[in-house]
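Final report, closing paragraph on structural work. Over the funding period we assembled a curated collection of sequence-structure pairs, and we close with a single example.
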Amino acid sequence: SPPAAPLTGSVNVCAVGATLLGTHDSTIFFDGTPDQYAKILLCDSSASSCARKCTTPEVEGVTVVWTHCCDLGRVTSGQYVQVEVWEADLFSADDFGGSVSVLLAPGGFVGGTLELQELGRHTDAGSTIDLTIAAQWGG
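Its predicted structure, as stored:
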C-alpha cells in the first residue's frame, strides 16, 4: 500500500527552561553568569532548511526559566522543531550553547527534559532544555 499522506495541524512550542553547563564568558566587569535565550525554529522534513519563528527573552543564570511559547501555525507531520540555546554576549557574537530537534508527528513528543545535542564550544555534556509541544492534527 502507498505511504500515508502527511497530516497537517497547528503546533505550539513552549521553551520552559534550560540548564547550560560549562565555562561561560567572563570579564573584569561581569561575574561570568550566562544570559541565556532560545531560538525556536521550524524545519523541513530533512531538517536542512529552517526558519526562525520566535526567540525567548534573555534570562541570567546557569539554570533558567523562560516559559515562552511560540505558535508555529500550520505545519505538516514530518517537519521538525529545532530549539537552539544561546548565551548572549555584550561585546562579541553570541555563543551557541546547543540544540535539540524534535520530529512533529501525531503521537510524538509532547514534553519533558531533553539533553542538548550539537554542543557549543563552551557547553558540557549533560546540558538540558525543557520543552512542551501541543499539537492538533487534522487531515
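The two ends are 19 Å apart (CA to CA). The beta strands are 8-19, 35-43, 50-55, 59-60, 63-76, 80-87, 95-103, 111-115, 128-137. We thank the funder for supporting this effort.
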